[in-house]
Amino acid sequence: MIKFGIVGMGLRGKLFADTILQSHYAELAAVSDAFAASLEAAVERYGVPGYADAAEMMAKEKLDAVVVATPDFLHKEPVIAAARHGLHIMVEKPFSTSVEEALEMEEAVRAAGVKCLIAFENRWSAPFVNVKHAVKSGEVGRVLAINSRLNDTIFVPTKMLKWSQGSSPGWFLLSHSTDMACYLKEQKPVRVYAVGTKQKLAAMGIDTYDSLQTIVTFEDGTHAAFTTSWILPESMPLIVDFKYEIIGEDGALYVDLHDQMVHQAGAVYKHVPTLGTPVNGRLLGPPSHMLHAFIDNIRLDTEPLAGPEEGVINTRLVDAIHRSAECGAPIELA
């Protein structure tokens, strides 16, 4: 059995722990969290050793792999520590919110010779799996344009995340949609121009962007338009509004993850999030499919679908988007 430790036992850490419990090839061996209450709850729930210090967990426990589920800006230390201990790593996206840190992490992973998966979970989302197949098989021809809208309700930066001021809708959301464009096109981004708004959340004492809009140019001369915000009203029928349009030479594809086929009316109107609904107790959402795939990468000695190189490309891109929004000018990507 592949022995896993988890760093960060928030919502995502618990989801990954529950997923590991359903694997025939892996087991949860230890957990780590810097917050005493979260750590105590995780130890009680999963019955495994708990550590306030992730590095201590890696040094003391006989682990094979770790899942790093810390906030966006706190990936570097656990990733590098895991690499130095020779542990395989699945780390939340974005790889880092710093290009310099992302390059350090990439080098540590390469030097250690361990497997590393960056958690771009939409690569395992059923709608996008179908989209990738259609693009790869040539059903729409060469992709000429992509338009993406990925928004969250204001619940996310004000209530769900205690650390939203250290992130942005760019790091938290655009990292998903920009990675998907790179994955579908198999092209690197070379230029960005972005604008952003800081008003509503800043007035609430949260110094981060309300929204960002950007045009990305790829090395084949085509473009993609991305818009993201996390200030939609909480009355929205689903916490996330994700729409994706792929226009090719011979066809087009349209993805709407805001409408997941079931609409419920009652005291409030809502869209039921069916894509992650467990069936017979089995977790079937993209994050769980992704972790099972990573477990297979380890046991079958195969390469993860999104590794450090993709993580660095994404960090460079989202970093450039922020810099462009700040300076008001296009940014060329090295």
From TrEMBL:
It comes from the Bacteria. It comes from Paenibacillus contaminans. The lineage of its organism: Bacteria, Bacillati, Bacillota, Bacilli, Bacillales. Residues 2-119 form the Gfo/Idh/MocA-like oxidoreductase N-terminal domain. Residues 129-253 form the GFO/IDH/MocA-like oxidoreductase domain. This is Gfo/Idh/MocA family oxidoreductase. One of its GO terms (molecular function) is nucleotide binding.
